[in-house]
Amino acid sequence: MEMKTAVVILLFLIPAAVNAEKTPVLQDEDGFRAVRMAIEDLIESYPVEYPRGKEYLARADEIEKLPAGQQRDDRLRQLKREALLDNPLLKFRKLLLVQRKKGRQGLPCNWEGNERLPRTGYDDQVAMLSLDHPDDELQTVFRPQSDLFVGDLDLHFDGRRLLFSMPGKNGRWQVHEIEIDPSNPTASAGSAPRELPLIPDPDVDNYDACYLPDDNILFTSTATYTGVPCVQGSSHVANIYRLEAGTGEVRRLTFDQDHNWNPTVLNNGRVLYLRWEYSDLPHFVARILFQMNPDGTNQAEFYGSGSYWPNSFFYARAIPDHPTRVVGIASGHHGTRRAGELHILDPALGRHEADGSVQRIPGYGKPVEPVILDNLVDASWPKFLHPFPLSSKYFLVSVSLKGGSTWAIYLVDVFDNMVLLREEKDYDLLEPTPWQPRPLPPVIPSRVKPRQKHATVYLEDIYEGSGLKGVPRGVVKQLRLFTYHFAYRGMGGQQDKLGLDGPWDIKCVLGTVPVEPDGSSLFYVPANLPISYQPLDAEGKAIQLMRSWSTAMPGENVSCVGCHAPQNSGPPVKNTVAARRTPSKIAPWYGPVRGFSFKREVEPVVNKYCAGCHNAETGGIADKPAAKPIADAYMFLRRLVRTPTMESDIHVCEPYEYHADTTELVRMLRAGHYGVKLDAEAWDRIITWIDLNTPRHGTWTENVGRQRMANTAQRRRDLMRRYAGIDGMDENPDELIQQVSVPSAEVLVKVELPPQQKPPEVKITKLDAPDVKQAVRSIELADGNRLELVRIPTGEFLAGTSKVKIEKPFWMAKNEISNRLYTAFDSQHDSRLESTDFLHFDPIKRGTPLNAPDQPVARVSWQRAMEYCEWLSNETGLTVELPTEGQWQWACRVGSEDPFWYGGRDCEFAPYANLADLQFNSASHSKTFQWRPGILDQNDGHRVSAPVGSYRPSPWGLYDMHGNVAEWTATVYRHGPDSAATKRVVCGGSWSDRPKWATADVRLGYWEFQKVYNVGFRIVVSDE
Question: 711, exposed or middle or buried, with CB in 10 Å at 0-12, 13-18, 19+?
Answer without folding.
Answer: exposed
